[in-house]
Model the fold of this input.
Amino acid sequence: MGELKRVVVVGAGTMGSQIALQTALSGKYDVTLVDSVHGQLERAKAQNQRLVDRSVEKSRLTAEQAKAAMEHIRASDSLAGPAGDAAIVIEAVIEDFDAKKEVFRELGKHAAKDAILTSNSSTIAISRLADHSGRPERCCNTHFFHPVTVMQLCEVARGPRTSDQTVADAMDFVRSIDRTPVLLRKEIWGFIVNRILFAASEEAIRLLEGGYASAEDIDIAVQKGLNWPMGPFHLLDFSGLDIFYGAMKDRHRQGEGSDAPPVLDKLIKDGKLGRKTGEGFFKY
Ligand SMILES: NC(=O)c1ccc[n+]([C@@H]2O[C@H](COP(=O)([O-])OP(=O)(O)OC[C@H]3O[C@@H](n4cnc5c(N)ncnc54)[C@H](O)[C@@H]3O)[C@@H](O)[C@H]2O)c1
Done:
């Protein structure tokens, strides 16, 4: 991966903008951030500027590093041009199969022949997208965690047709931007972390619904007894209940796990989606 120079990130939302920033902060790449929605690229730039300013204030970055990183992120409303000389393209558009499929189809037309094409999807396995690019051997999932500049992990998941070289290149890329890759050797819904998180979250909700303990006490138990930095209910509120709900429904549709529990149905129906709406399992 010595000559890897350009990285294209498609989707400048929460994750894409931060993946672009983390990549630029490594000092090793020029990044092009692509978004199709008017105004989103400016919002992403402003958000990233706030993130680096805060890091400078806290002496985690020098002003020069922050400036250099921001200068190494370009914006584009089309992937066609930038993808042509990218060594890796990371898709981070909305969690919608058709939108992602279309990105992979476009990448098949425009990306350099040896580029790695990855998806940041939390729930859509690369095997469902890779064929649309016409080069499934160069595709895999690279699942980063929010917030990318803080969370070290990236799950690299190979599909049935991903080549060993692509896996090695993707793992090298993740290391090169100072994140820690782990490899999921075979596809499974939720990769590693979300499977374990879902098991714990569902059990917490079962205990709450069964009247065994309050959300507060379940969180305290998990924090103080398992040393998690945050209990499952605070974590669900922080991540957004709609995200968890959508993922549970998707998993159930794919024939795995149980359907969303009634307590979650009700919170979603009432528009209580967690911190972002001021209320979820807790009030903020
Ligand atoms: N938010 C999280 O905590 C998190 C964590 C890990 C993985 N993910 C995954 O990352 C992906 C992105 O999630 P997010 O939270 O950043 O979503 P988001 O809604 O914040 O951002 C998605 C962006 O994609 C853009 N977009 C939509 N269609 C596009 C297209 N065709 N071309 C270019 N841009 C397009 C939208 O304008 C938006 O800016 C999803 O697949 C999600 O599953 C999210």
Residues 10-16, 34-37, 40, 92-95, 99, 103, 120-122, 143, 145-146, 239 surround nicotinamide-adenine-dinucleotide (CB under 6 Å).
